[in-house]
Amino acid sequence: MINSTSLLAYNSIRGVIVGNKQKEVYKAIEMLGEANNKDIARLLGQEINTITPRVVELRSLGLVIWAGDAKDPRTGRKTSYWKISK
């Protein structure tokens, strides 16, 4: 499991309450720098359908923002990349 100490401190400052799965996804994006949902799922060993809703929730909380679209090097398809908001 990913350590979420820094996220807990960050959330206490911002007053945002997030669940454990959201914390894992947040930390994965933080570790990867910029990541698409498949990258996050691969890192966490989870299915993409469990990652996508967590990314949406983190975006609605303002903790994660869109980093741009690019071709996924594995599939060649256009995909959205996410990063931690500053």
Give the termini separation: 24 Å
Strand content: 15-25%
Q: What percent of the residues sit in helical stretches (DSSP H or I)?
A: 40-55%
Radius of gyration: 12 Å
Overall 3D form: globular
Tell me the strand order in the biggest sheet: 1-2
Based on secondary structure, the structural category is alpha+beta
Mean pLDDT: 87
What is the N-to-C order of secondary-structure elements (H for helix, E for strand)? Answer: HHHHEE
Total E-strand runs = 2
Helix-strand layout with pairing:
Elements: H1 5-14, H2 20-32, H3 37-44, H4 48-60, E1 64-71, E2 78-84
Antiparallel strand pairs: 1-2
Helix pairs in contact: 2-3, 2-4, 3-4
